[in-house]
Write a structure and sequence with these properties.
Number of helices: 57
Strand content: 5-15%
Number of strands: 22
Low-confidence stretches: 1-12, 493-518, 707-721, 834-896, 922-938, 948-955, 967-971, 988-1005, 1127-1142
Structural class: alpha/beta
Strand order of the largest sheet: 8-9-10-7-11-12
Mean pLDDT: 76
Radius of gyration: 44 Å
Length: 1381
């Protein structure tokens, strides 16, 4: 055969190595043109990947990724094999042995797969495939990747948030394997990533998860419900945005526990909620529901948590979890309300339950802490670990509840009644009888633990704030008697009303103290002292029994904790304790060197130190009596005993969440139940830590010294009281004769002392009278001198005023002549130079008064249409002139700002005009002339000042204006009509004096319907009728401005002052408002006075105009004003915009079919808009069309910007960009920012330069600036700030921002928008409130100095405000946007 092979020229075939095979398969997979060949190669690689994982990963992974990008998207079989192969390469555990080398290889393959985000997105895309193996394999692989590199997968997902709906749809998959894998992926994606949490929440994940839970049967739904609840919890943790969104779904939580979403306080909870069937899976699901309720902290869930913790048959861990959550609420739990308890029928194994009589919640809570569930009749051992956890939680909740002194005194007052009046089942009876009962040997763990909890619960009564009054808890406790409890009162507190009789107390373990004592204790405190002594004796008798000795130690610790808490700062109680033999009880354990528990010994030393420190009541045992004992024991020894107790594990391991400790093996009694034990509670540990060093210092204090510590004032009063008692006792022991003599002597001495004091007082009075006479003479002389000086000053002032008036008249004549000359020159066609034109028109503030004829000199004013009526303008002129004299206003802005304040009565003028303060109102007012000016101002003059109100509304701190874009809260649902009605009810207005249609309706009808009729009729005139039923917060800026005018009109003023009424109104609303003002002004009810901006056109119905010019009032006709100041009314738009085609390739923003809706109300229906670098856009649209919402989307502040799949900023999806980074690239000026910006005065407030500098980061608080940034701020301020010189502008930049006028604040915030290097500038109503000089500067800067690479969106309703004549236009109408050019 070998010969034949050689003859044919063939050689024996050689076996290929794994690397060679894998290489050939990878080449075939990447290069073959046949799908069948590629599929065969892939299947071969899948088989090899299990045994040659490292080789397949290093050689074929790139080829496999090519398949993921190609064949896997179209062939289910290829997708299945590929996903299984990649999962094998990246899986860390599984069938592998998990060595470090294999783990590193799996992570390396994972990193290669995740290097390019497109592969992750392809995997998410495969989730849309309906094939089981494709979908399941993609989920498995994604879970593996998330397990290995969670943060990387999360980052890739943020860049492709459109797949959030895909992942959510997987959760509703009917196939359990896919759904479970999808839930696992969902939980991993949302873990510790607020951006993804927000995307899922606003994408409907909450609704989908709740729907799945309902379909699966609620908390009975097993693993599916558990996974969904776990996902909801993951979405809510540490994310205030998702929590706010979820609040609207809160009513869906109580029904999951079979509890009504709303229930009346006196309505009984349904039995299906109280008694349910429980298994382990249901308990886990309910635990998650309770955890979600705890995250939300909604007050409406307090009753649910309370009854779930103390009434239902829920497992112990669920009850403990519910009770723990109650401490997180600000409201006190309703523990004093009655509830219906149930208990299991004995020997029914929890299958049968008996209904009991109603009891207070505090009674059940105390019973749970003392005896465990159902008063010790529960299905579990009272000392079992789970039951002890519930009892410890109940103890902690009771401790928190009783810190309210009113609750503590309520329980204590219930203990001072007669024994037959105290119900053994009440909280008072349970606590009192619990500590009055002393068990005897042999002890059981159940009995010892019950007494422990009774002591700890009773000590909680004294954990409230210090109170040393006669009604304090400690004072009431001292009045409690020490009689023994009635028979059977020391056992459990529940009685099952079945056929069997009530179980009697276990007489073998629970016995009263010795009954044959001749002198039973007279108080509870004496009884506790005696029980402490007996417990120590009993402990000494069983010293050889380690388990019972430990039980007695627990009882002794309980007594010591109670006594330490009670005796702190209570000298009267300390006296009772000492007289009952308490010192002897404490000294012996302290002095022992062996055979004593360190915790017992330390607490004895602590209690002894308290007795010494606060022993201030007179008695047989004083501090001097105790001091020799301390000397004998040694102060250092006492401190050492306390330190050892503090360092004991039973002390150190106590924390606020758990006071239950594991039982050490040496103390475990043979039992199948895992037990827990309690030694101390957190309340006592806090008490110890707070007072340990005070006690430590007091041990070595001198017995005669008054000890320092908490409540020094109270301690001093106690010392004084004790000294008075001593004096009183000593006085009683004196003989009667000696007492009378002493009293007579005291009276004589007192009389003599009074006589001496009287003489001294008379001498002092005489001397004082002489001093007062001298001072009076001196003051009279000073008054005469000052009167003479005042007369001279008044004469000088009159002369100066006369000179000023002459100068003003001269200046007015010169100005008038100059104005006529210029008009003549213009008429003749002569050119008037800038110098000749002067700057007299700068900063003109026109005030228009409809149908008023003026004589220019202001000496004779009258109304041309109604000469008999008193005119407003004379007084208006007088106000301005007198303000100028009184306040020395240096600028026309300041003079103008004072005018409406004076008309409103907020400024006073002097002297008052001779014809009255309000002559224009007195003539037509029915009131007498003696009516106060404030009455006229309140009822007749109203102001609508938009700029001033925004400034005031901003307050001192930043207000979050973006809240309006989220879900509307209940407090924000007030409609416009509700707000108008509320304003009428808060400030009722008298009936109108003249006939006017809306007012006539108000006169004819009464009550609410009449007010609504007036509102709706006037709203129709302002085109606001459709908006009356819309929440006020949802109105646009223009709609809110018209609403504020409406609010004042329905109050029927005599005079209406309007500042900038047309600013912010669109071209449709401006004529509507103008026509309405014309109608009401013609009837002179009210008079209308408007402040218009310099650039605003004058309405045609205006006949005369009052100008504030050169700090004087000048009256001109409307025609004269338009001829003189035509450049203010129609301004040129400036030069053409520079060509930005070279920046067209830089795409700043791309929006495609963007939509925004609140429920059923669509705000943006379809927005498609692309903005490139260098673009100049004019954004326009009617009020309420959606402009503000669109701006909030561009800035990333709107929550729904996360849900847009086709919204890119600077070439990146908005979802992948944090909002903070967007604010650096998109700089914005809006009316909302003007209102929200912080305006803190004084220290801590921003200067103007600081406010401008916040624009670099887009923040609203101080940020340190670099040198380069400071230079940019200074340069911009020098270009735009008011002031003639550089020094003036620099001084302006150092002023407090809050101290600026609204116009200057607006300018500073515009600089804040311009200062950075943002790629997109958004300027919304930027000229609102600015004067003419500011507007000219800003227009020139926007036109000439904005970088050609920056895009600008200019939002305005006025075409003449747009700085660029060839700006592109984008319009929005009813939520639909389109580019016009």
């Amino acid at each position: 055969m070998d010969f034949l092979i050689a003859l044919r020229g063939q050689t024996e075939p050689t076996q290929q190595s794994p690397n060679e095979t894998i290489t050939k398969l990878a080449d075939r997979l990447a290069q073959s043109t046949q799908l069948e060949d590629r599929r065969a190669a892939l299947l071969s690689l899948r088989g090899l990947s299990k045994d040659y994982r490292a080789e397949v990963g290093s050689i074929a992974l790139n080829s496999l990724l090519l398949v993921l990008n190609g064949d896997a998207q179209v062939d289910p079989e290829v997708a299945k094999a590929l996903l299984q192969t990649l999962n094998t390469l990246c899986e860390v555990d599984g069938s592998l042995d998990g060595t470090a080398e294999q783990r590193d290889m799996a992570l390396k393959n994972t990193d290669l797969l995740l290097k390019d985000p497109k592969y992750t997105q392809k995997l998410f895309g495969l989730l849309n495939d309906t094939s089981f193996y494709t979908r399941y394999g993609a989920l498995q692989l994604l879970n593996t990747l998330v397990s290995n590199r969670r943060s990387v997968v999360q980052a890739h997902f943020v860049n492709a948030p459109e797949y959030s709906q895909t992942v959510t749809s997987v959760l509703e998959e009917k196939r359990d394997m896919i759904r479970n894998e999808g839930l696992q992926l969902f939980q991993a994606l949302v873990a510790q990533n607020t951006d993804i949490q927000t995307v899922f929440a606003f994408g409907g994940a909450f609704e989908s998860l709740l729907r799945i839970i309902a379909q699966e049967g609620g908390v009975e739904g097993g693993l599916a419900s558990y996974g969904c609840l776990l996902a909801i919890e993951g979405l809510l943790k540490y994310n205030s945005s998702t929590q706010t969104y979820f609040r609207q779904l809160l009513p869906s939580l109580p029904p999951l526990l079979l509890f009504p979403p709303s229930i009346a306080p006196d309505q009984e909870s349904p039995q299906e909620f109280t008694l349910q069937y429980w298994d382990e899976m249901k308990a886990q699901n309910v635990g998650l529901v309770v955890s979600i309720i705890g995250i939300m902290k909604a007050p409406e869930h307090i009753r649910l948590l309370t009854e779930l913790g103390i009434v239902t048959n829920a497992p112990s861990q669920i009850k403990a979890q519910s009770l723990r959550l109650l401490s997180g609420y600000n409201q006190t739990p309703p523990f004093f309300q009655t509830v219906i308890p149930y208990v299991p029928v004995p020997e029914s194994n929890g299958d049968e339950w008996d209904r009991l009589e109603p009891r207070r919640g505090i009674d059940l809570l105390v019973s749970t802490a003392l005896d465990g569930e159902y008063g010790g009749i529960g299905v579990m051992t009272p000392t079992a670990r789970d039951t002890m956890g519930l009892r410890g939680t109940a103890l902690t909740v009771v401790d928190d509840f009783l810190k309210d002194e009113e609750a503590a005194t309520d329980l204590l007052n219930g203990m001072i009644q007669s024994p037959e009046s105290i119900s053994p089942a009440s909280a008072s009876g349970l606590l009192l009888y619990g500590i009055q009962t002393l068990p005897t040997s042999p002890l059981s763990s159940t009995v010892a633990t019950r007494l422990q909890f009774a002591c700890l619960l009773f000590s909680s009564l004294f954990h409230g704030p210090p109170n040393h009054s006669s009604t304090s808890p400690k004072a009431i406790a001292r009045a409690i008697g020490g009689s023994s409890p009635p028979q059977g009162a020391s056992g459990g507190s529940f009685f099952v009303p079945a056929d069997n009789p009530a179980p009697s107390a276990p007489t073998a373990t629970l016995k009263a103290a010795e009954e044959d004592e001749e002198d039973p204790p007279s108080s509870l405190l004496q009884l506790l002292t005696e029980h402490l002594s007996l417990s120590m004796l009993a402990r000494a008798k069983v010293i050889d029994d380690a388990i019972e000795s430990r039980l007695w130690d627990k009882i002794i610790v309980g007594y010591l904790v109670l006594l330490s808490t009670w005796l702190w700062e209570d000298p009267k109680s300390i006296r009772i304790f000492l007289e009952a033999g308490g010192i002897g009880v404490l000294v012996e354990p302290i002095s022992q060197t062996s055979g004593i528990d360190v915790l017992v010994q330390g607490l004895c030393a602590f209690l002894f130190a308290i007795c010494y420190h606060f022993n201030r009541e007179p008695g047989e045992i004083t501090r001097k009596t105790l001091h020799p004992i301390i000397t004998r024991l040694g102060g250092d020894q006492l401190i050492s005993r306390m330190a050892r107790a503090r360092d004991d594990d039973r002390f150190r391991h106590i924390n606020p969440d758990s006071i239950i400790l594991p039982v050490p093996p040496s103390a475990v009694i043979a039992s199948k139940v895992v037990e827990g034990e309690v030694w101390l509670d957190w309340g006592f540990v806090e008490f110890w830590k707070a007072n340990y060093y005070t006690v430590q210092r007091g041990i070595n204090a001198d017995p005669d010294a008054v000890a320092s510590g908490p409540g020094d004032t109270t301690e001093l009063q106690l010392v004084i009281s004790s000294l008075r008692d001593v004096v009183r006792k000593q006085a009683d022991e004196l003989q009667a004769a000696k007492a009378e003599a002493t009293e007579a002597k005291k009276q004589h001495q007192l009389f003599a002392a009074k006589q001496v004091a009287g003489d001294d007082l008379q001498k002092k009075l005489d001397a004082l009278q002489v001093e007062r006479d001298k001072e009076r003479e001196t003051l009279q002389k000073q008054i005469q001198d000052l009167s003479a000086q005042l007369s001279e000053l008044q004469e000088k002032k009159k002369e100066q005023e006369k000179e000023q008036e002459d100068l003003l008249v001269f200046l007015e004549e010169v100005s008038e002549k100059r104005r006529r000359d210029k008009a003549t020159m213009r008429t003749a066609g002569l050119e008037v130079s800038e110098d000749e034109g002067g700057d007299e028109d700068d900063d003109l503030v026109p005030w228009t008064v409809g149908r008023i004829t003026l004589i220019v000199k202001g000496e004779s004013f009258h109304n041309s249409t109604s000469p008999s009526s008193t005119c407003l303008l004379p007084y208006f002129v007088t106000v301005l002139q007198r303000l100028q004299k009184a306040y020395h206003m240096s600028s026309e802005n300041g003079l103008f700002a004072a005018t409406p304040l004076t008309l409103l009565g907020r400024r006073r003028i002097h002297p008052i005009p001779s014809n009255g303060v309000f002559p224009f109102l007195e003539s037509n007012n029915d009131q007498s002339s003696s009516a106060s000016p404030s009455d006229f101002r309140k009822d007749n003059v109203l102001l609508v000042a938009f700029t001033a109100s925004r400034n005031v509304a901003a307050g001192g701190e930043f207000t979050d204006y973006t809240a309006r874009y989220g879900a509307i809260r209940d407090q924000d649902r007030q409609t416009l009509q509700d707000r108008l009605l509320e304003s009428l009810s808060q400030d009722p207005v008298p009936p109108p004096p003249t006939e006017f249609t809306p007012k006539a309706l108000a006169n004819e009808a009464e009550g609410l319907e009449a007010q609504i009729s007036v509102i709706r009729e006037m709203a129709a005139k302002l085109n606001l009728l459709p908006q009356l039923d819309i929440p006020f917060i949802a109105l646009s800026n223009g709609q809110q401005r018209r609403a504020r005018i409406l609010r004042q009109l329905i109050r029927h003023p005599r005079v209406l002052l309007l500042q900038d009424p047309f600013a912010g109104l669109d071209y449709i609303q401006r004529p509507i408002l103008s026509n309405l003002l014309q109608v009401i002004n013609q009837d002179e009810e009210p008079f209308v006075i408007m402040e218009l901006r310099p650039q605003d056109p004058i309405p045609q119905w205006i006949t005369h105009i009052a100008l504030l010019q050169n700090q004087r009032l000048v009256a001109v006709t409307s025609v004269e004003y338009q001829q003189e100041h035509v450049h203010l009314i129609s301004r040129p738009n400036g030069v053409l915009m520079k060509d930005s085609s070279k920046n067209a390739e830089k795409e700043v923003v791309r929006l495609q079919d963007v939509k925004v809706a609140y429920g059923d109300r669509e705000v943006l229906k379809s927005i498609t808009w692309t903005i490139h670098g260098g673009d100049r856009w004019w954004l326009r649209g009617p009020n309420g069309s959606g402009k503000t919402t669109l701006i909030s989307m561009l800035t990333g502040e709107h929550p729904q910007s996360y849900t847009q799949s086709k919204f890119d900023i600077l070439g990146k999806p908005r979802r992948s960009l944090p909002t903070v980074s967007i604010q650096k690239q998109v700089s914005v000026f809006t009316p909302e920012i003007f209102s929200a910006f912080p305006r803190r005065s004084g220290p801590g407030g921003l200067t103007v330069a600081d406010a401008v500098g916040t624009g670099f980061e887009g923040t609203y608080s101080y940020r340190p600036l670099t040198t380069e940034q400071k230079e940019s701020v200074d340069s911009l301020i020098q270009k735009l700030a008011p002031g003639e010189t550089k020094e003036e502008r620099s001084l302006w930049s150092r002023q407090n921002f809050a101290s600026l006028s609204p116009q200057e604040q607006s300018l500073a915030l515009l600089m804040r928008t311009l200062v950075g290097d943002a790629s997109l500038l958004i300027l919304d109503e930027v000229f609102a409130g600015m004067d003419d000089r500011m507007i000219q500067k800003v227009r020139r800067y926007l036109r000439d100095q904005i970088g050609s690479e920056r895009a600008v969106i200019f939002v305005s309703h006025w075409e003449n405000e747009v700085p660029w004549p060839n700006a592109k236009q984008y319009t929005i109408q009813d939520g639909v946007g389109r580019a016009l050019n």
